[in-house]
């Protein structure tokens, strides 16, 4: 009997499975090939003029053969393109085209609405989402409390950048260039409460230190604004979630402001790419 005949037939035996239950969430369900492809896309996204294959291999510290195979697949799927001479690789416009098939704000609103709805049901308070828009803040989504007792800001309203919780959150979690641009584009709205540069700087630092803002409304008596950022991958604010909290004084016992704060923190964390600053204190 030959060695070939001695080999067992059928499927190859499975390799020993690795127990991933004890790993942190980001290390579970690993897909090395997918990670490798995403690493290449993220690397090329930071290179305006592309990179050679040798430069990609060096930056990623992987073997030339595995990088070559992955690059060929990305080229075949049109996520990456070669220059005419064939020695450099750069991102194509396919990712841009895919992103614009679903406008970013519409996509964010669609993802946020179910989370906001769950918040309002648990907190018995209203909730709105604010995004930066031409020097001030646009209320892009709003859900009222199902209890019937709440204070709300109308969807589509424009509110001040420098005197609202939403505006201060967006400024606190903006990168330096965006921060300067936002201030330069700002135009005061009717009734805007002025703020000094020193007080603004102190407010923004306090927000960054605790991860959220909670204070009496500068617009409406009896309302406490509680606001958290929705963070993008670079830890800047894509939007804000704000609850204009009002306290019931009748016999109904609903969630107190500490519970409401925790519910809102969880909602913002669910919608954030980067969760490092959406924890806060208290």
UniProtKB/TrEMBL annotation:
Residues 94-277 form the IclR-ED domain. Keywords: DNA-binding, Transcription, Transcription regulation. It holds the Pfam family HTH_IclR. SUPFAM superfamilies: GAF domain-like, Winged helix' DNA-binding domain. Residues 1-29 are annotated as: Disordered. The keyword DNA-binding applies. Residues 31-93 form the HTH iclR-type domain. The keyword Transcription regulation applies. This is IclR family transcriptional regulator. It comes from Rhodoferax mekongensis. The lineage of its organism: Bacteria, Pseudomonadati, Pseudomonadota, Betaproteobacteria, Burkholderiales.
